[in-house]
Amino acid sequence: MSRTTRVLSRLVFACVLLTPLSHAQEGSEADGEVRYVTDNLYTFLHAGPGRNYRILGSVEAGTRVTQLQVDAENNFVEVIDDKQRTGWVDGTFITSELTIRERVPILEQRLQEANEQLAEQEALNQRLNQQVQTLTTQNEQVNKQLSELQSRNQDIQQELNTSDQTAQIQWFTRGGIVALASIILGVIIAYLPKKRRRNDQWM
Question: Residue-wise over 39-58: b if at least 16 C-beta within 10 A, else e?
Fold first, then answer.
Protein backbone atom coordinates (compact mmCIF):
# COMPACT_ATOMS: atom_id res chain seq x y z
CA MET A 1 0.00 0.00 0.00
CA SER A 2 1.42 3.39 -1.01
CA ARG A 3 2.21 6.18 1.43
CA THR A 4 -0.60 8.29 -0.03
CA THR A 5 -3.11 5.50 0.60
CA ARG A 6 -1.95 5.13 4.20
CA VAL A 7 -2.28 8.86 4.78
CA LEU A 8 -5.73 8.86 3.23
CA SER A 9 -6.81 5.96 5.42
CA ARG A 10 -5.63 7.72 8.56
CA LEU A 11 -7.56 10.84 7.72
CA VAL A 12 -10.88 9.05 7.21
CA PHE A 13 -11.76 9.48 10.84
CA ALA A 14 -10.80 13.17 10.72
CA CYS A 15 -13.19 13.65 7.80
CA VAL A 16 -16.05 12.34 9.91
CA LEU A 17 -15.29 14.68 12.79
CA LEU A 18 -14.90 17.83 10.75
CA THR A 19 -17.74 19.86 9.34
CA PRO A 20 -19.02 18.26 6.17
CA LEU A 21 -17.46 19.82 3.18
CA SER A 22 -19.49 21.30 0.39
CA HIS A 23 -20.25 19.29 -2.68
CA ALA A 24 -18.11 19.73 -5.74
CA GLN A 25 -19.23 22.44 -8.08
CA GLU A 26 -21.65 21.24 -10.71
CA GLY A 27 -20.42 23.63 -13.37
CA SER A 28 -19.46 22.28 -16.76
CA GLU A 29 -15.85 21.31 -17.42
CA ALA A 30 -15.00 20.32 -20.98
CA ASP A 31 -18.74 20.00 -21.64
CA GLY A 32 -19.18 17.62 -18.70
CA GLU A 33 -19.85 17.54 -14.98
CA VAL A 34 -17.23 17.20 -12.28
CA ARG A 35 -17.23 13.79 -10.61
CA TYR A 36 -14.79 11.70 -8.56
CA VAL A 37 -13.70 8.10 -8.51
CA THR A 38 -14.68 6.66 -5.13
CA ASP A 39 -12.15 5.69 -2.51
CA ASN A 40 -11.36 2.22 -3.78
CA LEU A 41 -7.79 1.46 -4.78
CA TYR A 42 -8.51 1.96 -8.49
CA THR A 43 -11.06 1.24 -11.20
CA PHE A 44 -10.58 0.29 -14.83
CA LEU A 45 -11.15 2.65 -17.72
CA HIS A 46 -12.92 0.79 -20.57
CA ALA A 47 -13.29 1.69 -24.23
CA GLY A 48 -17.06 1.21 -24.04
CA PRO A 49 -19.95 1.07 -21.53
CA GLY A 50 -19.29 -2.41 -20.17
CA ARG A 51 -16.65 -4.73 -18.71
CA ASN A 52 -16.35 -6.59 -22.02
CA TYR A 53 -14.79 -3.57 -23.71
CA ARG A 54 -11.07 -3.13 -23.96
CA ILE A 55 -9.34 -1.76 -20.88
CA LEU A 56 -7.62 1.53 -21.60
CA GLY A 57 -5.99 1.78 -18.21
CA SER A 58 -6.84 2.34 -14.56
CA VAL A 59 -7.94 5.37 -12.57
CA GLU A 60 -6.72 5.77 -9.02
CA ALA A 61 -9.07 6.28 -6.10
CA GLY A 62 -10.15 9.85 -5.51
CA THR A 63 -9.19 11.03 -9.00
CA ARG A 64 -11.17 13.98 -10.27
CA VAL A 65 -12.84 13.20 -13.60
CA THR A 66 -15.21 14.96 -15.98
CA GLN A 67 -18.47 13.14 -16.57
CA LEU A 68 -19.63 13.23 -20.20
CA GLN A 69 -22.61 10.89 -20.29
CA VAL A 70 -24.26 8.00 -18.45
CA ASP A 71 -25.30 4.61 -19.78
CA ALA A 72 -28.12 3.85 -17.36
CA GLU A 73 -28.70 0.35 -18.78
CA ASN A 74 -25.19 -0.90 -18.05
CA ASN A 75 -24.55 1.60 -15.22
CA PHE A 76 -21.39 2.89 -16.87
CA VAL A 77 -20.25 6.49 -17.07
CA GLU A 78 -18.15 8.06 -19.79
CA VAL A 79 -15.48 10.29 -18.29
CA ILE A 80 -12.31 12.21 -19.01
CA ASP A 81 -9.72 11.42 -16.36
CA ASP A 82 -6.82 13.51 -15.02
CA LYS A 83 -4.60 12.25 -17.86
CA GLN A 84 -7.10 13.52 -20.44
CA ARG A 85 -8.09 9.99 -21.41
CA THR A 86 -11.70 9.42 -22.44
CA GLY A 87 -13.32 6.13 -21.50
CA TRP A 88 -16.01 4.36 -19.53
CA VAL A 89 -15.92 3.35 -15.87
CA ASP A 90 -18.33 1.46 -13.65
CA GLY A 91 -20.93 3.93 -12.34
CA THR A 92 -20.66 2.34 -8.91
CA PHE A 93 -17.26 3.97 -8.53
CA ILE A 94 -18.38 7.47 -9.54
CA THR A 95 -19.66 9.97 -7.00
CA SER A 96 -20.40 13.68 -6.81
CA GLU A 97 -19.11 13.83 -3.23
CA LEU A 98 -15.62 15.00 -2.45
CA THR A 99 -13.40 12.00 -1.88
CA ILE A 100 -10.75 11.64 0.76
CA ARG A 101 -8.07 12.42 -1.79
CA GLU A 102 -9.76 15.74 -2.49
CA ARG A 103 -10.51 16.40 1.18
CA VAL A 104 -6.97 15.86 2.43
CA PRO A 105 -5.54 19.17 1.15
CA ILE A 106 -8.60 21.01 2.48
CA LEU A 107 -8.30 19.26 5.84
CA GLU A 108 -4.58 19.97 5.97
CA GLN A 109 -5.22 23.64 5.22
CA ARG A 110 -7.92 23.78 7.89
CA LEU A 111 -5.55 22.09 10.31
CA GLN A 112 -2.83 24.61 9.47
CA GLU A 113 -5.26 27.50 9.96
CA ALA A 114 -6.40 26.00 13.27
CA ASN A 115 -2.77 25.64 14.37
CA GLU A 116 -2.06 29.24 13.39
CA GLN A 117 -5.10 30.42 15.33
CA LEU A 118 -3.99 28.32 18.28
CA ALA A 119 -0.51 29.82 18.10
CA GLU A 120 -2.02 33.32 18.01
CA GLN A 121 -4.20 32.52 21.02
CA GLU A 122 -1.23 31.10 22.90
CA ALA A 123 0.81 34.23 22.11
CA LEU A 124 -2.11 36.40 23.24
CA ASN A 125 -2.47 34.38 26.44
CA GLN A 126 1.26 34.73 27.07
CA ARG A 127 1.06 38.51 26.64
CA LEU A 128 -1.97 38.67 28.93
CA ASN A 129 -0.18 36.55 31.54
CA GLN A 130 2.81 38.88 31.39
CA GLN A 131 0.51 41.87 31.82
CA VAL A 132 -1.18 40.15 34.77
CA GLN A 133 2.20 39.45 36.36
CA THR A 134 3.26 43.08 35.82
CA LEU A 135 0.03 44.37 37.35
CA THR A 136 0.37 41.94 40.24
CA THR A 137 3.91 43.18 40.91
CA GLN A 138 2.77 46.80 40.73
CA ASN A 139 -0.11 46.03 43.08
CA GLU A 140 2.25 44.42 45.56
CA GLN A 141 4.53 47.47 45.40
CA VAL A 142 1.58 49.82 45.92
CA ASN A 143 0.36 47.74 48.87
CA LYS A 144 3.88 47.79 50.34
CA GLN A 145 4.07 51.57 49.95
CA LEU A 146 0.61 51.92 51.48
CA SER A 147 1.64 49.76 54.43
CA GLU A 148 4.77 51.87 54.92
CA LEU A 149 2.73 55.09 54.77
CA GLN A 150 0.24 53.70 57.29
CA SER A 151 3.10 52.72 59.58
CA ARG A 152 4.65 56.19 59.29
CA ASN A 153 1.26 57.76 59.92
CA GLN A 154 0.88 55.70 63.09
CA ASP A 155 4.37 56.72 64.22
CA ILE A 156 3.63 60.39 63.56
CA GLN A 157 0.28 60.12 65.33
CA GLN A 158 1.97 58.48 68.29
CA GLU A 159 4.60 61.24 68.33
CA LEU A 160 1.83 63.85 68.24
CA ASN A 161 0.02 62.13 71.12
CA THR A 162 3.26 61.96 73.09
CA SER A 163 3.96 65.64 72.37
CA ASP A 164 0.42 66.57 73.49
CA GLN A 165 0.83 64.59 76.69
CA THR A 166 4.24 66.21 77.34
CA ALA A 167 2.79 69.67 76.70
CA GLN A 168 -0.11 68.97 79.05
CA ILE A 169 2.26 67.69 81.74
CA GLN A 170 4.43 70.75 81.33
CA TRP A 171 1.41 73.02 81.48
CA PHE A 172 0.07 71.30 84.59
CA THR A 173 3.54 71.37 86.15
CA ARG A 174 3.98 75.05 85.50
CA GLY A 175 0.44 75.76 86.68
CA GLY A 176 1.11 73.76 89.83
CA ILE A 177 4.36 75.62 90.48
CA VAL A 178 2.64 78.96 90.00
CA ALA A 179 -0.20 77.92 92.28
CA LEU A 180 2.21 76.64 94.92
CA ALA A 181 4.26 79.80 94.69
CA SER A 182 1.08 81.85 95.09
CA ILE A 183 0.08 79.90 98.19
CA ILE A 184 3.51 80.25 99.74
CA LEU A 185 3.56 83.93 98.93
CA GLY A 186 0.10 84.33 100.50
CA VAL A 187 1.22 82.56 103.63
CA ILE A 188 4.33 84.69 103.87
CA ILE A 189 2.34 87.83 103.39
CA ALA A 190 -0.15 86.70 106.03
CA TYR A 191 2.54 86.24 108.62
CA LEU A 192 4.37 89.47 107.97
CA PRO A 193 4.10 91.96 110.93
CA LYS A 194 1.52 94.70 110.47
CA LYS A 195 2.27 98.39 111.20
CA ARG A 196 0.43 99.95 114.11
CA ARG A 197 -1.89 102.85 113.48
CA ARG A 198 -0.83 106.22 114.91
CA ASN A 199 -3.23 107.91 117.35
CA ASP A 200 -2.34 111.40 116.41
CA GLN A 201 -5.74 112.23 115.08
CA TRP A 202 -7.34 115.40 116.47
CA MET A 203 -10.14 114.99 118.90
Answer: beeebbbbeebeeebeebee
Residue 195: strand, helix, or coil: coil
Q: Which of 192, 169, 188, 10 is nearest to 103 (CA)?
A: 10
Task: Tell me which fold the domain 23-97 belongs to.
Answer: SH3 type barrels. (2.30.30)
- Write phi, then psi, for 51 (nearest 5 degrees): -75, -15
Predicted TM-score of the model (pTM): 0.38
Q: Of 177, 181, 197, 179, which is closest to residue 189 (Cα–Cα)?
A: 181
- Of 32, 88, 81, 30, which Cα lies nearest the Cα of 60? 81
Q: E strand or H helix at 202, and its extent?
A: none
- DSSP label of 91: G
All structural domains of the chain with their residue ranges: 23-97
Q: Identify the helix (H) or strand (E) that includes residue 76.
A: strand 76-80
Residue 194: what pLDDT? 65
Give the DSSP H/E element, type plus range, for residue 88: strand 86-90
Q: What is the mean pLDDT of residues 153-173?
A: 84
Cβ atoms of 43 and 60 within 8 Å: the answer is no
Look at residues 42, 123, 51 and name the one whose alpha carbon lies nearest to residue 88.
51
The Cα–Cα gap between 81 and 101 comes to: 15
